[in-house]
Amino acid sequence: MEIYKLLDYSYMMQQKKKVKEKFAQATDLLEIKIAVLCGSTFGEVQDFLEVFLLHYGIKPMFLIGEYNRVYEEACFPNAALKEFAPDIILIHVTNKNLRSDFRCNESFELSLYEEEQRLLQIWNLLEEQYHCMIIQNNFEYYPYRMIGNAARTNEDGSVKYIDDINGFISSYVRENNHLYLNDIHFLSSYVGLTNWYDDRMWYMYKYPMKMDVMPRYALNIANIIKSVLGKNKKTVITDLDNTLWGDIIGEVGVENIRLGYETPQGEKFVLLQQYLKYLSGHGVVLNICSKNEYETGISGIASKKSVLDAKDFAVKKINWKEKYENIQEILEELNLLPEAAVFIDDSSMECDSVRAMLPEIAVLQMSNMTQTLQQMDTLSFFELPKETAEDKQRNQYYRENIARNEEKGKYENYDDYLKSLEMTCYVDKARKENIDRIVQLFNKTNQFNFLTRRYTMEEVSELSRKPDIEMFVLELQDKFGSNGIVSVSIIRLCETDAYIDGWVMSCRVFARGLEYVMLELVCKLCMERGICTLHGYYKKTLKNSKISNFFGDAGFKEERYDIENEVHEWTCRDIEGLLKICKVDNIMIMQTNV
Amino acid sequence: MSDILQRINKIFRIIFENENLVISEETCADDINEWDSLQHINLIAMLEQEFGIEFDIDEIISMENVGDMVKVISSRCKFE
């Protein structure tokens, strides 16, 4: 995988220009402003970070602070930073920036306390001033421990010092939504401290780590950013034979597949299954795509040796069809785009054919278990951002959707099916409790998103306080369970006109009629407020063509096309007529009372 | 062009993103616009990987032109 190869410093140096040129041509890049407060030289990391972010469809703009002025730039008036208005502030520090005089005197407790207070002050002031996401490094161990193993247990030990500060940072990050951790403590352990440090680079250039490590450092930061911006993968589609277990089940029989702790060849497959099981517990949807007889394939999963069982998989395509066809069907059932999926298979032929047919899918070829897991792990396909209640529920939602699909098969008439779902839509406003999910919906939704404008938490809470803005937040429930908050709109009212400035709906609930519930709510609002004209907008991206004529179909007239911003504007002057079109019989509407 | 100089030339082409760059022993930072301190570190790191050696600080500081680099590298790579 190209992005994985870029972790090699010399390959990165050779390729970075080409990669940048290639990705800079993409039309739907997400622009983001990153301010870096530097405890040490940022230098080359900026370039590497840009390369990885472009890979994820994110175009960064940087403001790089002065060397070793983190505290001053964060805690005193900073006009440049204010004007830059960052979306993200990255605090690029390492243990070189910590007070280390605890080593010379008895001030361990004091040093620790002062460092913690300094960090707190930086975080709080940044949050107050700039209301944006902050990425904070934790700290790597010092390369020397003067009192040996006791450095971890002794009151003034240098290992204990780092552990204590890191523990303090972790617990603060857990409690604070705007703060994210860049775990360089793990990174430095992963590459090994002897491969992390390069004293010459520090003495001469104030680089805190070896050049070779910098791509990995940059990728780790890029992974945090892409996860927050909704660029994570969402689903794994896995093969069975020689992927979830060793050998071919159709040939050796279920009793002879290699899986379990009894044999060295079987143990590695347990590891992958456990890895996937853990992911599934954090909202990653697992599916099977295997060339086998259905019963034979299932018997492997059902066997006592298997960590994963049939319930852990949403869609199971076990048949003799071409894999890419099965994958397309899986994605259709889940309403996901290929770019949201990771495909794992041991056969290079299958992998190549899937790559050729569905180039947006991340393909992991299982040639060597250790390598496969390392790749999956380092690329952090499923980097967990701050988990919303919806994230934890996601697997539940998909499972319920599968049940809905089965239900659909029972009805000849789609309308009868919708009726049978017994849907209720709860209408709410933006509130402190649901703001995380609103932000997430705007930032992650690609298909049913009219302007694909991304919002920060601060922007949404500001909008929700404006008197001329109405926001509708919809939760959809049916007899299979709740889908959670799945649609949000932002309506701006100005005298006799209303403007749909933002509208998103999760792909989870396509084709249920919920979009008309939203229009109905908007129409009623317009009538209450004496609005004569309703304006809707559409900006084409690679992913939202499904709704390109939505307003036209609903009876709006195309008013004009703003060439500069590539935005189509539609208007409706017959609000009563629109309301009639929007009557949805199959969904009961309830107001949430707070 | 000596073998070492050729290999150094290859690294220069990567770092300064110029496929046609030709250097000589006299080439120094004044001759290449982009040769600043930041790129100097990249040069050093790439040369170390290419030749499988590690320079010490005195050596890095002493390398003011390509000839200096050839000298240091050939003194370290005894096979030359």
CATH superfamily grouping of chain B: ACP-like
Largest interface, counted with CB-CB under 8 A?
Answer: A-B, 15 and 15 residues
The geometry of chain B reads as: globular
Kindly report the oligomeric state of this protein. Answer: heterodimer
Report on this structure:
The complex is a heterodimer of chains A (594) and B (80). Chain A is α/β, with parallel strands linked by helices and 594 residues long. Chain A has 3 domains: 2-228, SGNH hydrolase (Rossmann fold, 3-Layer(aba) Sandwich), CATH 3.40.50; 235-379, 3-Layer(aba) Sandwich (Rossmann fold); 413-591, Gcn5-related N-acetyltransferase (GNAT) (Aminopeptidase, 3-Layer(aba) Sandwich). In chain A, helix 23 (514-528) links the parallel strand 15 and strand 16 (533-539). The model of chain A has no long low-confidence stretch (mean pLDDT 91). Chain B has 80 residues and is mainly alpha-helical. Chain B has one domain (3-76): ACP-like (Non-ribosomal Peptide Synthetase Peptidyl Carrier Protein, Chain A, Orthogonal Bundle), CATH 1.10.1200.10. Chain B is globular, with a radius of gyration of 12 Å. Chains A and B meet through helix 2 and helix 11 of A and helix 2 and helix 3 of B.
